[in-house]
Design brief:
Blueprint: E1 5-7, H1 13-24, H2 28-33, H3 37-58, E2 60-64, E3 69-76, H4 87-95, H5 100-112, E4 119-127, H6 136-151, E5 155-159, H7 162-170, E6 174-175, E7 180-181, E8 187-193
Parallel strand pairs: 4-5
Antiparallel strand pairs: 1-2, 2-3, 3-4, 5-8, 6-8, 7-8
């Protein structure tokens, strides 16, 4: 498969947020953050829009030319981050101020995020529901993983389902051994990929 990939522009922010909303609507973590389906339909896109804003401001978004898939990447430097991470509070404030789970999911994933080495962080990857299962996600992130291998840079992500965990294992990611435990909710699997020589 030859996939035309380009970097998303700021003007495409809402399109990418809508894609994430559709792709993650039935995700176990989204269902935990927003248990009521009607409420989820109303606020989920705003919640995921914060991730889009962060990637546009601090990283990049790779997107298929037809808009059916997008990957949000951040380059994370080695060392403890300076100051408190404001993104979880922003997720709650912008999406659903009365819902502490909006903030908690970001805080819990942040606690387990590795700090020892600089790495590429796959913040999120989304494929439109009608295009899933065709290998688009794999092809979309393959160039970044190849660059990681060339440059000797690890990659990191959190898998939000058993299915996605298996997919990432095929790409060389390995579970770090300590899951993110959402209270009374699903597990998330932090995964690390060493660069391949």
């Amino acid at each position: 498969m030859v996939l035309e990939i380009r970097r998303a522009e700021r003007s495409e922010r809402d399109e990418v947020a809508e894609l994430l909303d559709e792709a993650f609507h039935d995700d176990p973590v989204s269902g935990w953050v927003f248990p009521d389906p009607e409420h989820r339909a109303a606020v989920h896109g705003r919640f995921l829009g914060v991730f889009v804003d962060v990637a546009l401001a601090e990283g990049r978004i790779d997107r298929t030319a037809d808009g059916s898939a997008a990957a949000l990447w951040l380059r994370i430097p080695a060392g403890e981050p300076e100051g408190e991470d404001e993104v979880p509070a922003r997720m709650r404030a912008e999406a659903d101020p009365d819902n502490e789970r909006c903030e908690l999911v970001g805080r819990l994933t942040g606690e387990l995020h590795p700090t020892a080495e600089e790495h590429e962080y796959l913040l999120m990857i989304a494929v439109a529901p009608g295009s899933q299962g065709r290998g688009l996600g794999t092809e979309l992130i393959r160039p970044v993983l190849e660059r990681c291998d060339r440059d000797g840079v690890p990659a990191y992500l959190e898998a939000s389902s058993e299915r996605s965990k298996r997919l990432y294992e095929r790409l060389g990611f390995a579970f770090t051994g300590v899951p993110v435990r959402l209270p009374d909710g699903p597990l998330m699997w932090p995964m690390w990929r060493k660069p391949r020589g």
